[in-house]
Specification:
CATH superfamily of the domain at 2-73: Nucleic acid-binding proteins
Shape: elongated
Order of helices and strands: HEEEEEEEEH
Helix content: under 10%
Number of helices: 2
CATH architecture of the domain at 2-73: Beta Barrel
Oligomer: single chain
């Protein structure tokens, strides 16, 4: 009966070790019980759970020396406004990527934060913008000014082409 009782435990994450081949968690389980367990995460998803996240730990054969955290969740940060069928990738900081029930995808940064894309961005299809659209130069107005006033070096020495027509 003890082996059956010891198969599953619920605990709180206290420490995360990221540098290993498999992430390892230090969890507190029963009163006074601390365990170091592997954290089995789905392929393609890696997360570093915050302290005091809840962990569901399985112990194969009831052996408390070899635990495996199969689910870790954080009640404080999980989104609570998803419609049926929606999926959300989220963090404790408030950032979310949501596949909506209509099939669209929303990237929602935390309040006061920006979405930062690293690398080249290749968009196929239409781009619709609302609000302010800016770039490293500062704004679309700056892009227009740069484009409208640019010239090219002409084949004739010391001369250049006129500004582009039509203007942007």
């Amino acid at each position: 009966m003890r082996l059956v009782r010891d198969l599953v435990a619920r605990g709180l994450v206290k420490l995360v070790e990221q540098a290993l081949k498999t992430q390892r968690l230090q969890v507190t389980l029963l009163i006074g019980e601390t365990a170091y367990v592997e954290h089995a995460q789905p392929y393609g998803l890696e997360a570093n759970p915050p302290a005091d996240a809840q962990a569901l730990v399985l112990f194969v054969g009831g052996d408390r020396a070899h635990g495996l955290a199969v689910a870790v969740s954080d009640r404080a940060s999980r989104p609570k406004n998803l419609a049926p069928g929606e999926v959300c990738l989220y963090s404790k900081h408030g950032n979310q990527i949501v596949e909506k029930s209509d099939g669209s995808i929303e990237v929602i940064p935390a309040a006061g934060k920006k979405v930062h894309v690293v690398g080249d961005l290749d968009v196929t299809g239409n781009v619709t913008a609302s609000g302010n659209v800016t770039d490293a130069a500062g704004s679309m107005a700056a892009i227009r000014l740069t484009y409208n006033s640019h010239t090219h070096i002409s084949a004739a020495p010391g001369s250049s082409t006129a500004a582009p027509v039509p203007q942007m």
